[in-house]
């Protein structure tokens, strides 16, 4: 009983705890973020951005085929295009998850955005927009299912013949696609219709 108490006490309070390694390379934009420009870009206007967010599946040759997969009830993000944001997007191209290299958006830049939720047909709207350039993005999560015949064994008969036995196996694969697009409202009152794919 005493030995168990001593072992338990030692395991819960060690004299030294090895800190976790943080090998993540954080890529941050060096251009200062202009909050006044971003605030003015997201002020109320009379323009409207309407769109549909979707993706088509690709076959084994990389060709887009089949029916569109709509971004149902998905969050669409809209950012004003600023020099800071353009530099951030360039840094995203240098990301390498295998080497723990990621681009990060500052808290200020993340704060200045608009969000919309799409309907079941992938349609979304950003009303009351001012003329200007904007960047839209949406993460589309979807899955594919399929089946294959898994070999389970071989049976032999009395005459030297054999029969292979298979079982039908089903699988599901999860996918995640980033849909993004640059758009521009050129004048007040404009209704811009886009396809976010």
TrEMBL record:
Which branch of life, at top level?
Bacteria
In Swiss-Prot or TrEMBL terms, this protein is called: Carboxypeptidase regulatory-like domain-containing protein
């Amino acid at each position: 009983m005493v030995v168990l108490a001593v072992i338990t006490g030692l395991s819960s309070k060690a004299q030294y705890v090895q800190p976790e390694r943080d090998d993540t390379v954080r890529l941050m934009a060096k251009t200062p973020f202009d909050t006044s420009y971003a605030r003015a870009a997201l002020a109320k206007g009379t323009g409207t951005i309407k769109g549909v967010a979707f993706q088509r599946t690709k076959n084994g040759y990389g060709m887009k085929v089949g029916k569109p997969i709509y971004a149902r009830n998905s969050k669409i993000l809209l950012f004003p295009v600023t020099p800071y944001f353009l530099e951030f997007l360039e840094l995203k191209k240098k990301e390498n998850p295998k080497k723990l290299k990621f681009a990060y958006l500052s808290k200020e830049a993340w704060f200045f955005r608009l969000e919309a939720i799409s309907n079941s047909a992938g349609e979304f709207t950003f009303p009351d927009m001012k003329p200007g350039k904007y960047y839209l993005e949406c993460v589309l999560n979807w899955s594919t299912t399929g089946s294959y015949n898994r070999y389970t064994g071989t049976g032999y008969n009395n005459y030297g013949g054999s029969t292979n036995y298979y079982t039908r196996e089903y699988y599901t694969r999860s996918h995640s696609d980033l849909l993004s697009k640059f758009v521009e409202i050129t004048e007040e009152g404009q209704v811009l219709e886009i396809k976010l794919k």
